[in-house]
Description:
- By secondary structure, the chain is of the alpha/beta class.
- It folds into 2 domains: 8-130, Response regulator (Rossmann fold); 137-249, CATH 2.40.50.1020.
- Helices cover 29% and strands 32% of the residues.
- The chain contains 7 helices and 15 strands.
- The protein has helices spanning 17-27, 42-52, 68-75, 93-98, 111-130, 179-185, 230-239; strands spanning 8-13, 33-39, 56-60, 82-87, 103-106, 137-142, 145-150, 156-160, 163-168, 171-175, 191-195, 198-201, 205-210, 216-220, 225-227.
- It has a 5-stranded parallel sheet, with helices on both faces. The protein has a 5-stranded antiparallel sheet with strand order 10-9-8-12-11.
- Helix 4 (93-98) links the parallel strand 4 (82-87) and strand 5.
- The chain starts with 7 loop residues before the first strand and ends in an 11-residue tail after the last helix.
Amino acid sequence: MQTxxxxxxxxxxxxxxxxxxxxxxxxSAYHQIDVVQQCGAGTEALHAIRERAPDLVFLDxxxxxxxxxxxxxxxxxxxLPVIVFVTAYDAYALRAFExxxxxxxxxxxxxxxxxxxxxxxxxxxxxxxxxPTARDRIAIRSVGEVIFIDVASIDWIESADYYxxxxxxxxxxxxxxxxxxxxxxxxGAGFVRIHRSTIVNLDRVGRLAPGSDGDYEIALRDGxxxxxxxxxxxxxxxxxxxxGISQQAY
Length: 250
């Protein structure tokens, strides 16, 4: 059976609405691309990258308040998505590559140049996905000792301020990590975020059950019911193999 590669989740960051719509229109010709969000400012992009964890970011250089380079600096040591800088000026090319960008596109875009860039993007992301990034175990400090939890044994995770609660069978382990950081670490390990405060192990999902608001909830095999928010629903449905489900369920 042929393996279907997941789409490349892309974020467009540009303070000019026409530039965003033009780039989105060009990307519509590439069926492997799913534009998950468009941002008009660097600060908005920071939040989107942290929350949406895109595979690819088209990042404008010159933006008010927080430019493209500052966006990368503020992300700090976080594992970055593939970055393609987009700008009307060629003066920043060297700095862009020094910042780790895969490519640097000048506006207006040339179709042949754009196609070459997309080929490079597809090749890079395929290489990234071919390398397992998820941890096998998570270390938790507890009462003077360190406990190692097998990632595969985790049923679901919920946030509690700056902590995360790892539910493993009847036990709950507290870890001083944000849910966003854990989501990053668990990419590729069979987990999906279904709510701003909840991540679930896909292997533990037993069924989708009607919720009180008329929408679906995730029902785990042990009977645990978890709310799924609209923000994360489309990605969760895709990871559950429900791309063909009625649009009413979205």
